[in-house]
Design goal:
Strand order of the largest sheet of chain B: 2-1-6-3-4-5
Largest sheet of chain A: 5 strands, mixed
Low-confidence stretches of chain B: none
Strand content of chain A: 25-35%
CATH architecture of chain A: Roll
Radius of gyration of chain A: 12 Å
CATH topology of chain A: Ubiquitin-like (UB roll)
CATH class of chain A: Alpha Beta
Largest interface: A-B, 27 and 44 residues
Number of helices of chain A: 3
Structural class of chain B: alpha+beta
Number of helices of chain B: 25
Mean pLDDT of chain A: 95
Oligomer: heterodimer
């Protein structure tokens, strides 16, 4: 389904990109494809904050699609559609 | 001797008798120090019938073999029986007090008795002086530290109580090095009951290192590991622990208005990102810590330390408050008055729900930021409704006939992760030896943050084994003594390396994990004797019966019974949660 996908940035990623969120108009695509579009739209490369050199999720990276962790789905191949919200958290911790 | 200083001082405040004792090499090797050795010494001295406020109760300040050596080794543990929970309790604090106490030539301090009038202990290379503290009684923690430094030396590190401890508030904290707190379990109230205002230390003795070359190489390696890790090397420095606010809220398990909801609509406004943009002056760090997760902040009127994640939650979402200034100033007040922020905030939230239901005929309303500071101050001085808030949530809710509204385990308030969204954390809370605490086994690490591996937070499968493992390694790190944030970047083998180069003993990973297990089991044995068992290894009924309604944990409840028997089995305990004879024999207990 085509439509707007909301991509939200948190933590260090937000500080780097200086924006809390962007919208991407697209039909169904994978999370990986969405990340590349988000890089294009923000004009900044940030994949290194989330992925390792082999383009796999870094330990500690959290990507939620409508609140569901993509690690419980198809990781970066998880499909995203118009109307979805995607939260991107670079590795973080606390307690 | 390498690692340890080899001496523990015992002091009786009633008789003013002092003695110095050594701990056998076998006991040191079996319990290390900190929490482990503290619990061992406590259970040898006191019984499960000991009243926490009685003179014969022991209050133990302990360092460990790594204290004063590696990075993050300024910490210390305070061990006693908690007046809040009645369980064994150890409370941990950062700063530099642990390293300074050890530099006086002592591994720890065992305090019994009750002074005839207020005193403080001044521990230095030459011994321990019991000094008059009549003029300090009534001062807040910041004033107390400054006054003692003026009376002794600017280099003195001071662990002290404020008015809350003097007034025996059941969740009074001990503050040291300005704003570092041994927060949980009411250790400050025990100091108050002993008429002990502070323990101050200054010394110049170095810790002997068994393998100086290996130590140097290892330190360089650990430096690289910590620096390279994106959490310890970057996120904690820039955003502090409150970076968790948005993360936990996005998972629908950020407890809101006394855990009735898991999504706080104003989370953004109280997040670590927001604090960094607004209140943050600079980061602050404990002794030899390259991480620096502390926040030095300033509001329009005041300045101080914090808030950390738990405090942002306790005075924020838990109360429906989104005013970051009010949250921060309540944090400053707790530091000055000597109060545990988690129990304070959770108890106010419980009170708000009691008022809303009409069970308590007071007016404490959700979101009332304007009255927050007054409630905190009244609690420390036990005046007005503060004398009721000073009971903590369990006793307060029982008093008004609604015990189920207290969000606690064994009398200690649960922190800022709704267990309905994390099954392993639920088991960790339920089986924690000191009650509703996130630090016994921080399952958020694996179930939410994905360190060291990612586990499905809604699954109960295999969680029992991992909770037990996390409990053991945490007990080990608390006995070493180091900061638990190092666990984000390194595993057990690095801790083993540290202990080997410092002590010269040929520790193995297995032996160290067994030490953690021994400590955890000994704590459990004490709790069993104090009357705690399976019926206490549970959670408030809300978490079993009320589904979360919004957010990504909606329709979830805790499934504790799917994990509890497994957990007891993994632990070698019987169905009632009592360690089996063979388990005790295997651990040498």
């Amino acid at each position: 389904m085509a439509g707007k996908i909301v991509v939200k940035f948190y933590g260090l990623l937000r500080r780097q990109l200086r924006t809390p969120a962007i919208e991407i108009e697209s039909s169904e695509l994978s999370v990986m494809e969405l990340l590349r579009l988000a890089e294009k739209k923000t004009g900044q490369s940030f994949l290194d904050e989330l992925l390792d050199p082999e383009k796999k999720l870094l330990t500690g990276t959290i990507i939620l699609v409508n609140g569901e962790n993509v690690r419980l789905e198809q990781n970066l191949e998880t499909l995203v559609r118009g109307g979805d919200t995607v939260d991107l958290f670079s590795p973080a911790g606390g307690g | 001797m390498n690692g340890w200083m080899g001496k523990i001082a015992k002091i009786d405040l009633s008789s003013l008798k002092q003695e110095t004792v050594s701990i056998s090499s076998e006991t040191r090797r079996r319990y290390l120090g900190g929490r482990g050795l503290g619990v061992k010494l406590y259970t040898d001295l006191c019984s499960a019938k000991t009243d926490p406020f009685a003179p014969d109760n022991a209050l133990i300040f302990m360092t460990g073999p790594l204290t004063g050596t590696m990075m993050t080794s300024g910490r210390y543990q305070v061990v006693s029986r908690s007046p809040l929970t009645g369980t064994i309790c150890d409370s941990s604090s950062g700063g530099s007090f642990g390293a300074v106490l050890k530099s006086t030539g002592l591994d720890g301090l065992v305090i019994q008795g009750r002074a005839a009038q207020p005193v403080y202990l001044y521990v230095h290379d030459g011994g321990i002086e019991v000094r008059d503290a009549s003029g300090l009684w009534g001062l807040n923690t910041q004033q107390t530290q400054k006054a003692i430094q003026e009376q002794t030396s600017a280099k003195t590190s001071v662990a002290c109580i404020g008015p809350a401890g003097e007034n025996r508030v059941l969740f009074a904290a001990i503050l040291n090095d300005k704003d570092r707190a041994a927060g949980r379990g009411g250790m400050g109230a025990i100091m108050g009951a002993k008429n002990l205002k502070a323990v101050a230390a200054t010394g110049g003795q170095a810790v002997a290192i068994a393998d100086p070359e290996g130590y140097k190489t290892l330190n360089a390696r650990i430096d690289r590991i910590v620096d390279k890790n994106p959490v310890t090397g970057k996120s904690l420095q820039v955003l502090g622990t409150s970076v968790l606010v948005n993360i936990i809220n996005a998972h629908g398990m950020f407890p809101t208005e006394n855990f009735r909801r898991g999504v706080f609509n104003d989370a953004e406004g109280t997040s670590g990102e927001k604090i960094a943009e607004t209140l943050l002056q600079r980061q602050s760090a404990c002794y030899k810590c390259p991480i620096g997760c502390g926040r030095t902040t300033r509001t329009k009127n005041k300045h101080g330390e914090g808030p950390e994640y738990e405090t942002v939650w306790a005075f924020g979402a838990q109360l429906g408050i989104s005013d970051l200034t009010a949250i921060t100033e309540a944090n400053y007040a707790c530091n000055e008055l000597g109060l545990d922020t988690i129990t304070m905030g959770s108890t106010i939230g419980c009170a708000m729900e009691l008022c809303e239901t009409g069970a308590w005929k007071e007016k404490m309303l959700w979101g009332d930021a304007g009255k927050l500071l007054g409630w905190v101050e009244d609690t420390a001085y036990q005046r007005g409704i503060g004398s009721e808030l000073a009971l903590g949530s369990k006793r307060l809710a029982e008093k008004y006939g609604r015990p189920e509204l207290a969000m606690q385990v064994k009398g200690m308030e649960i922190p800022a992760y709704d267990p309905r969204g994390v099954q392993g954390m639920a088991l960790s809370y339920a089986t924690s030896n000191r009650g509703g605490c996130h630090m016994r086994a921080y399952m958020i690490s694996t179930e939410i943050l994905g360190h060291p591996v990612f586990l499905d937070r809604f699954s109960t499968a295999g969680k029992a084994e991992i909770v037990a493992l996390f409990q053991d390694i945490s007990a080990l790190v608390d006995s070493a003594v180091l900061c638990r944030f190092l666990q984000i970047a390194m595993g057990i083998s690095t801790f083993t390396d540290m202990l080997r180069v410092v002590t010269g003993l040929d520790f193995s990973d297995d032996e160290l994990m067994k030490i953690g297990r021994r400590v955890y089991t000994l704590e459990r044995v004490f709790n069993n004797r104090a009357g705690f068992g399976r019926r206490d290894d549970t959670l408030p009924p809300r978490f079993f019966n009320e589904e979360l309604q919004t957010g990504s944990s909606r329709h979830r409840v805790v499934r504790l019974e799917e994990m509890l028997d497994d957990y007891y089995s993994v632990r070698g305990w019987d169905k009632e949660g009592v360690p089996l004879p063979r388990t005790l024999a295997e651990l040498g207990l």
